[in-house]
Amino acid sequence: MKLSSRFRALFRRAAAEAELRREIDLHLELEARRHEHAGLSPTEARAAALREFGGVEQAREACRDAWGVRWLDGLRHDFRQAARGLLRARGFSTVIVLTLALGIGAAAAIFSISKWTLFLQPDYPDDVYMVCSVTQSGASNPLLNDYMTRGYETARAVEEVAKSARMSGNVAVDGQPIATGWTELTSNLLPMLGIAPALGRGFLPGEDREGANFVVIISDEIWHHDFSADPNVLGRNITLGSDTCTVVGVLEPDQQFPPYLGDEIFRPLAYHVDPLRPWLPQLCMMVKLRSGYSPVQAAATLSGIKLDPPTDTFDDNKSSVVLVPLPIFASLFSRNDVFWVLLAAVGLLYAIACLNASNLMLVRMFGQRRELSIRLALGAGRWRVVRLLAAESLILTFLGAAGGVLVANWLYPVLLRVLGSGLFGRASAWWNLAWGQLDWRELVILGVLALATSLVIALVPAIRVLRSQLSVSLKDGGAALGESRALSFLRSSLVVLQAAFAVVLLAGAMLMIRTSENYQRIDLGYDGTNRLKLGLEFPPTYSEQWEARLVKLHEIQSELERVPGVQSAGFGDDVMLPGYFAHTHTVQGANGITVKTMIRCFSRGFEGFSGMRLIRGRPLHLVRGNEILVSESLARACWPGQDPIGQVLHPVGGAPGFGPDWPGWLVVGVVADMRLQVRGAPGMLFYSDEGWAPHNYKTFILKLTGSYDLALGGLIRRTLYAFDPQLVVTYLLPLDELRDSRLRVERMTDGVLRVLAGTALLLTVVGLISVLAYTVNARLSEFGVRVALGATSADLVRLVLGRGMLLATIGLILGLLAAFGLTRFVRALLYQTSAQDPVVLVSVCGLLLLASAIACAIPSHRATKVDVTKLLRTE
């Protein structure tokens, strides 16, 4: 048969049927005319033509078979029948669709979180390498000084060089500050990475020269947020620092860059090295190699180059250079362990959903045992019955996938925000699940999961049908397709597995909850209520002389205190969770005890309004004096068992910045330990006054009259911008949110695991209820006999409750064994708790058993409502 006829029969069925009917009618008409010419009457001719042709319907069926699309008719019939059956069983259909929606939606949501890290890293060119210097600790640092890059780019192994630098300054649109930095790069860097603007053009050769670099390329996010997606944005002005630049391009949405290069605004790289600060700006350098050079050979060539560092510049080139391919370089900054934990957790949840759906499908098959037995008896093949079950599972799973889209887009983001993990803001790439933003990758995942799920949940009922014996099936209304000892064991095993998987998820979630509680119990050393941490970057025009810098700092302090909503302000070194500790002095206490410590300085009264707690003594009074405050840890280390007030802290080997004859520091007060890092022990610090290192002060602490909001933040930014457009606000962060900002990964993992564990527990309860409800329904006659023989309602409750709790207990034991082996994979995320924390394990046991008891109570209550008279009459 022609291929065109097959396509017409498949896609234009009505036209094919009409054509078939015309062909048969034409053939009969021609035969009838032939018989009329032979002398028969029209009626006799028509009858003769029909006798010679044979059965018209049989001929049509033969033609349809020749088309090869009869399977489509059968498939269409199966889906119609399956849909009608599911509509009749609305309760069953609703439960299984919701179950699958939770499992499939969770899988899609977690995949959206982890896809860029684990699976969909940008396709960086393989022949582009990041040039890194190897530090003494063995780490690879991609940030190089200018004299290093100028030396390396002349190496004979290098064919092409591209450089970039992160610049600090105010970015303003229409006189309003919108950002505080941008990235400058050579004109060939974007083409080297294979990146082209979606709108406009890239940088032209020669635009990375001084005087020609007044052009910028902006991100799609800046275009939408700050230019209102103006299609005429090309040619509009934007202010970077003191320069007015023209927008010439807009990048693709969610454009991915290697680490250290990602930004919202890009400008051609043209700069002069500041003689006073020759180490700035620090550059990233990428190279393409000449033919014949391997990365190892090229790195050896670069390491052998003689560099000429500027005077008084520390030469951090230790003749050790590595070339790191960009895909590998990007992977160094990923927390893959976190995302693998999340994928494993959602895999367990998906397995629970599939087990639950399979159990419910078995319940439905038991309810259809009489119908299926009659179908088999009337000649329907077993595969035809299997195909009907498969159609039902396909309908259910694709409805579940459709519900999974809603779950992934709406339910899980809402739950995460409710649980305190609202970490996925406008600029975050970890969470992009606003309505309508599931991309084709997620949709493909949903489709694959739906297809795989339909096969999984239809597998057990299909095997049951294929193994059934027709002669046995016809006995007792087809009970052979219903419950048997083997099938009862299978259904119970599925519930046990659900409970075991739920235990593993609950254990992981509770370990993260314990970790979060431990972090929250850490004493940070300050009260962050209504206090704001403000980071500033000062222009190079500000004097480095300490008196002039202090005058400027006090002017900024006065400007901030005039902002409505700001009660007081102070400045100094960053002592509020900066995220690092580096000792600056080695000091000596009583009995020759030496301690490595760190000095921090701040303005007058800082310890009061910043929230620092003065434990003993008094605040600092003298400017550029030798009075200090010491932390509790430093006081205990230097003067164990003694009163630190009035003691003198002596520098070992001189005090940098204080002169060789410095006699020491006089302790006038003790303050609570300030946490410089959330993880690890508090560092030992001592604090001096504002006069010693004002050129290092980049942090202001503001005490507010109320809580912080975005409107106040915008007002503070505009006030400082009006005071000095070159003064850069690098960040604004409430102190009571500072802890959480340092625990981003832990909070995300905690929130996701809580949601997944709660969903798993819910599905396990539903599975247990379905098994017990079915068991009660199947044993109603038995219960009637028991009641007739004297059993009480309490006896029936114990019977049903005992079976349910037995299944839950077996699952609990198996889950605990699995949890002992699997929770070790989250050990790196834990803090001050063990992966086998007994409190966690006891809590998991209690929670699962309580949920199981509640689940068993519903079918147990139904068992007590058995009507003995009605059941015995039926028997």
How many helical stretches? 27
Distance between the termini: 60 Å
Strand content: 15-25%
SS elements, strand count: 23
Q: What's the rounded overall pLDDT mean?
A: 78
The biggest beta sheet is recorded as: 6 strands, mixed, barrel
- In percent, how helical is the residue content? 40-55%
What would the principal axes of the Cα set say about the shape? extended
What structural category arises from helix and sheet content?
alpha+beta
Description:
There is one protein chain. The protein starts with a helix and ends with a helix. It is extended and about 130 Å long. A hairpin with a 5-residue loop joins β1 (about 130-135) and β2. The strands form three sheets. A six-stranded mixed beta barrel has the order 4-5-10-7-9-8. It contains 27 helices and 23 strands. With about 900 residues, the chain is an alpha+beta fold. α6 (about 90-120) packs across α15 and α24 packs across α27 (about 870-875).
Summarize the structure.
The protein has 875 residues and is of the alpha+beta class. Helices cover 50% and strands 15% of the residues. The chain has a six-stranded mixed β-barrel. Strands 15-16-21-18-20-19 form a six-stranded mixed beta barrel. A four-stranded antiparallel β-sheet has the order 14-22-13-23, covered by helices on one side.
SSE blueprint:
Blueprint: H1 3-11, H2 13-37, H3 42-53, H4 56-67, H5 70-88, H6 90-118, E1 129-134, E2 140-141, E3 143-144, H7 146-152, E4 158-173, E5 176-185, H8 189-193, E6 199-200, E7 215-218, H9 220-226, E8 237-240, E9 243-250, E10 265-268, E11 283-289, H10 295-303, E12 321-325, H11 326-331, H12 336-367, H13 369-377, H14 382-418, H15 440-467, H16 470-473, H17 485-521, E13 531-537, H18 546-561, E14 566-572, E15 585-588, E16 594-601, H19 606-609, E17 614-617, E18 627-631, H20 632-638, E19 648-651, E20 665-671, E21 685-688, E22 699-704, H21 710-723, E23 728-734, H22 738-742, H23 744-778, H24 780-788, H25 793-822, H26 838-863, H27 868-874
Parallel strand pairs: 5-10, 7-9, 16-21, 18-20
Antiparallel strand pairs: 1-2, 1-11, 1-12, 3-11, 4-5, 4-8, 4-11, 6-9, 7-10, 8-9, 13-22, 13-23, 14-22, 15-16, 15-19, 17-20, 18-21, 19-20
Helix pairs in contact: 1-2, 2-3, 5-14, 6-12, 6-14, 6-15, 6-23, 12-15, 12-17, 12-23, 14-15, 14-23, 17-23, 17-25, 17-26, 23-25, 23-26, 24-27, 25-26
